[in-house]
Amino acid sequence: MGLEAAHADGARAAPARRSGTRQQIIDAAVALIANRGFSATSVDDIAAAAGVAKGSIFYIFGSKTDMFEQILSEGVRRLTDDLRAAGAGLTGASALAALVTELLRNVHEHPAFAKLMTAEVFRTGRHWQDSIRLVRDESMAVFADVVHEARPDLDAALVGAAVFGATLVTGLEWLAFQPERTFDEVRAAILATTHGLLPG
Amino acid sequence: MGLEAAHADGARAAPARRSGTRQQIIDAAVALIANRGFSATSVDDIAAAAGVAKGSIFYIFGSKTDMFEQILSEGVRRLTDDLRAAGAGLTGASALAALVTELLRNVHEHPAFAKLMTAEVFRTGRHWQDSIRLVRDESMAVFADVVHEARPDLDAALVGAAVFGATLVTGLEWLAFQPERTFDEVRAAILATTHGLLPG
């Protein structure tokens, strides 16, 4: 991935400034790509929106495709970490409610990334598909594990995907089309939908 | 939309051939755009894949953007019609099961369109956003109406979106990552997830 190498370089050179620039580029790229798509967003656009020189993007990320691959992988990995932390020590319906709440919080906090992830994660024929497959699987597995533990009679991988999908799509629907709803209303609607699934 | 006009033209000129060409272009465009995205797909690519002259695409659809707008609107309208037909005369849990089954069948039958719809429907800043908003709302409303009738205590619009999302994402997950599962297994997993939602 070259990410660790990039971090190590940054630490040797100018850690705070480097990490600030990197995050500025990521934020600008996610916002632009979420609305226009990957191909319609040029490195020039990203550099202008981030307020950095175009050369910085190539220096930090390698290429536009490498940059996007790193953004997707890191974002999904952050989501997985957040989900694991939210569900730690819980089982059954309480665990599932904690995961739904945390995924919804993530969509609310990073709406552009959530759109981009939704748009890209089912595409085939993309350069980066294999590299995000692994982190994607880990994220889905957090839901599947909770289902499997409480209801071994169910197909945990598919049911986990269903709860993930219910939360993701309802969160995006909320932000794009029903912004007058509150976080708690949206959360309650998702939990009502999956109410009969797990005991506890 | 210009669609009715295009159909009328076709009927006057060479109905069978025209409608065959139009569908070839749509099928090619959906397949390419679903995997590469809208901007990365050129009219030349679409013409080559459809085996038609580039001029036919402009003659039939006007522009690349108009073409995509028509594809999205028509596809979502077809889905809405299928959902309404599937739920006709049913209420409560039976109606919801019929809608889930029909949406899953649609995803299975038109996987490229399902990917493309998922990728595009939450984007903002696209030219065609307003035009697909209406048909999108109609599609979501089929689910919301069933929820509202059986459970007026719930936020039907959000719960409808949750069931829609659970079905769409599980269907895409199935086709992209777990193709060894059967239709009935996937359907059963979604229905288990929403099992406690509606009586009947």
TrEMBL record, chains A, B:
One of its GO terms (molecular function) is DNA-binding transcription factor activity. Residues 19-79 form the HTH tetR-type domain. InterPro entries: Homeodomain-like_sf, HTH-type_TetR-like_transc_reg, HTH_TetR, Tet_transcr_reg_TetR-rel_C_sf. Pfam families: TetR_N. Keywords: DNA-binding, Transcription, Transcription regulation. Residues 42-61 bind DNA. SUPFAM superfamilies: Homeodomain-like (SSF46689), Tetracyclin repressor-like, C-terminal domain (SSF48498). This is TetR family transcriptional regulator. It comes from Pengzhenrongella sicca.
